[in-house]
Amino acid sequence: MTQMIKKPFDPIAEMNDMLQRFSQLMPFSGQLPAFSKEGWSPTADLSETPEAFEVHAELPGVKLEDVRVGFEDGMLTVSGEKKTEREEKHKRFHRVERSAGSFSRSFYIPNVLDDGKVTALFKDGVLTVKLPKQQPGLPAKKTVDVKAG
Q: Burial, 140: exposed, middle or buried (Cβ in 10 Å; 0-12, 13-18, 19+)?
């Protein structure tokens, strides 16, 4: 008689598996977010006009100095950290729903950008990155300065 070896229970893997199976049954206009052990994943919109690509990422509770934006080989990466501000001394929490921790989102942007004119503005918890279009084949800038709005 053979014995089955049981895997340790991993609630994150179980939730991702359930979401994957559910998304195959239901048509969605977007992608369901994956759960992460590392932190959280901010929501974002990617749009395009004839002149530029634009990314709007919601980063509530994140400070400007904790946000990083980079662009390399056609990949825009927004990353950083949302730090917890909890003072647990003399407090008993009944519910904790706000996420904290490091995050990273990457978006493929066709390599038709004027890298010298990429701008990033962080205002009211929303990061807006504008990536103007230009002729293909130009080298891409590796980092982008983020300005406060």
A: middle
